[in-house]
């Protein structure tokens, strides 16, 4: 039987003491973990930094001696945001012995959720689709950041609380993908209705280099708020379009465009943009970013050009590392089922200030339900609020 122990506020040195290799010749006792990254597809603008963060974490941990003396063999490839390729690589890496998997996109993660459960492979993805945190639907998926739906609820609640008189009119501009629709699809529309918000969705076609037509419709609707569910590249272009049209609106990015890259692309058009940011940027001084900065310094690199996607990837793997350590320290076999059981004991798991403490249970895999809202001031993302918990449906 699996021995399960409460994991609350695990010390940093215990949480981070795991290691990884980059899919080369693995040691005989290596712990194999599969991963897919988008390095060349439509979300590569944020996917590349996420991949660097996960590989950086793995490299740093290798130097620490591994989990209970065992290194991690991180098997990964670029899947270019193509669902069939993701399914192929998942099958390959599991066949090669992966006991856990690090995914990326919403479409491929949702497509894989039944196979993940059948194979008993614990899976964490860069996708924060709300349904992936429901063990009844996705028993082996775990969200280690605030879901898109909860991010959207936090943004809508802020709008409703700060709007003043009249009905808030909100435009949700989203990527044409399951990722883009996720915030509205899993409770966002109903939440807006409950708050008395007039919400309209506007698709952002992939590959578009101008969103003037969409903003013409948004202006006609009378929207005073525009929320982006897209990556930083398209959102940055859209902000430039909106500013050039003189659109008087408050702009809010959900997490995949709340980053330094958005500011580099949009320039002055990014000033005043708000962002629901589950993970701290590397410029925010907390213990969980300090360890990353120290690692980069030791490699002769800097945080320049790095985004909070790097932080998110680093700490996503760290959470699974904590579960693996718990299993091995208890003397249990390192299987997917035992890793899952260990994760489900995490209560107020200390994330060293990069995000809210995580809690998983057998009935709830939405580990984080809060975040801070940031705002761009003088070209930098600065905290606008303390950590806010996602509101429940009124």
Describe this structure in words.
- The chain is built from 12 helices and 13 strands.
- It has helices spanning 12-16, 44-62, 83-95, 106-119, 148-162, 178-195, 212-221, 232-244, 260-266, 287-298, 308-329, 336-343; strands spanning 31-37, 72-78, 100-102, 123-124, 141-142, 169-175, 198-204, 225-229, 250-253, 274-277, 370-377, 380-383, 388-389.
- The strands form 2 sheets. Strands 6, 7, 8, 9, 10, 11, 12 and 13 form an 8-stranded mixed sheet that branches.
- It is globular and about 65 Å long.
What labels would you give this structure?
eight-stranded mixed β-sheet; five-stranded parallel β-sheet; disordered N terminus
């Amino acid at each position: 039987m699996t021995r399960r122990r409460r994991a609350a506020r695990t010390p940093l040195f215990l949480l981070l003491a795991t290691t990884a290799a980059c899919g080369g010749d693995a040691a005989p006792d290596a712990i194999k973990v599969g991963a897919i990254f988008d390095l060349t597809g439509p979300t590569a603008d944020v996917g590349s930094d996420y991949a660097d963060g996960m590989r950086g974490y793995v490299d740093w941990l290798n130097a620490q001696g591994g989990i209970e003396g065992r290194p991690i063999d991180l098997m990964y490839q670029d899947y270019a945001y193509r669902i069939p390729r993701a399914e192929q690589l998942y099958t390959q890496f599991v066949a090669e012995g992966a006991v856990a998997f690090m995914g990326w996109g919403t479409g491929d993660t949702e497509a894989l959720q039944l196979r993940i459960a059948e194979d008993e492979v614990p899976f964490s993805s860069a996708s924060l689709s709300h349904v992936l945190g429901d063990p009844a639907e996705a028993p082996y998926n775990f969200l280690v950041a605030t879901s898109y739906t909860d991010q959207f609820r936090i943004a809508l609640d802020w709008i409703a609380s700060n709007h003043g008189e009249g009905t808030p009119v909100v435009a949700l501009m989203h990527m044409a993908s399951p990722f883009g629709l996720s915030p509205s699809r899993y409770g966002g529309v109903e939440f807006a209705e409950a708050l008395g918000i007039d919400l309209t969705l506007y698709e952002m076609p992939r590959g578009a280099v101008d969103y003037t037509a969409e903003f013409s419709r948004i202006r006609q609707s009378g929207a005073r708020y525009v929320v982006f569910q897209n990556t930083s590249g398209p959102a940055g272009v859209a902000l430039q379009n909106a500013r050039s049209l003189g659109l008087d609106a408050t702009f809010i990015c959900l997490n995949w465009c709340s980053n330094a890259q958005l500011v580099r692309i949009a320039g002055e058009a990014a000033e005043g943009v708000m962002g629901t940011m589950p993970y701290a940027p590397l410029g925010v001084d907390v213990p969980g970013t300090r360890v990353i900065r120290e690692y980069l310094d030791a490699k002769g690199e800097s945080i320049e050009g790095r985004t909070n996607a790097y932080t998110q990837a680093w700490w996503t793997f760290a959470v699974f590392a904590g579960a693996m350590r718990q299993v091995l320290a208890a003397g249990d076999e390192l299987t997917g089922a035992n890793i899952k059981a260990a994760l489900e004991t995490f209560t107020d798991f200390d994330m060293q200030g990069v995000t809210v403490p995580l809690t998983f249970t057998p009935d709830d895999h939405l580990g984080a339900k809060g975040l801070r809202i940031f705002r761009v001031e003088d070209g930098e993302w600065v905290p606008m609020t303390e950590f806010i918990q996602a509101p429940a449906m009124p």
